[in-house]
Amino acid sequence: MSQLRVRPKADHGLVTEVTPESAGWRHVGFALHRLAAGESLEAETGAREVCLALVSGKARLAIDGEDLGEIGERMSPFEGPPWAAYIPAGGRYAITATTPLELAVCSAPGGPGHRAKLIPPGTHPQIVRGQGSNTRRVTNIMPEDDGSADALLVVEVITPGGNTSSYPPHKHDRDDLPNESYLEETYYHRFNPPQGYGFQRVYTDDRSLDESVLIEDGDVVMVPKGYHPVATLHGYDSYYLNVMAGPHRVWKFHNEPRHAWLFTGLGAPGGPAGGR
Asked: Where does the sequence pass through the membrane (predicted)?
């Protein structure tokens, strides 16, 4: 089995967890919790900043003791835009499910100067990228240009069955601004219907890393470096939640030169056709 694929370890409670220690990197943390109505999760952020992304379900949220009421609308990640919340380092939160809840806890090292906030649907517009069989719908939750965090970048993508995404292949594994930024990344995958599956390849130019990963509903794929395109199968739409973080909160990627011809008619390299 791929060392990059993290399978769900439970159906309830803490379902999946990736820490900097378990991943062997420095920045990105990801955890997925499934809670029944009435169940709660409470935590302090410590030295890390956190984005709570409601993959599905509704919940009551309090940050630093302030009750922010019930948030959440969709009961499936395929039903509409997300609700989310940001909690800076040194904060605390308590979230209580009011329906069955699938909650992603995205984290990265954080510092002072940022404020907690809700991120309701419509905060950032959904973008359609690519065309033909390379079409996908991208919704930023915490993009680089919102100035709201130290390190975290969070985005979700819907890819129709039979389409590719994170394609043409791109990478962001060198701290070489303004040409390329170093960002670790996790992909949390879901499929509709849930028995679907797809494939993700993670590979470097020198092929020192080259893994083709079978992805099924609930899997997490870790991307420590290299290119990382995703392919779906006919009949099964794909959802994934990306968490990225690195030494700079900048998403500057490099497209694989051998596939640069694919941008002809799709937009300039690094533009709307590439990336997520």
From this structure: none
Which of the following CATH numbers is that of domain 5-263: 2.60.120.10, 3.30.70.1450, 2.60.40.1180, 3.30.1220.10?
A: 2.60.120.10
The arrangement of strands across the sheet holding 117-119 comes to 13-18, 29-35, 101-109, 48-56, 83-87, 117-119
Model pTM above 0.85: yes
* Residue pLDDT, tens place only, 166-181: 999 999 999 999 999 9
Tell me: the pLDDT tens digits for 4-23? 999 999 999 999 999 999 99
What residue has token string 């596939």? 259
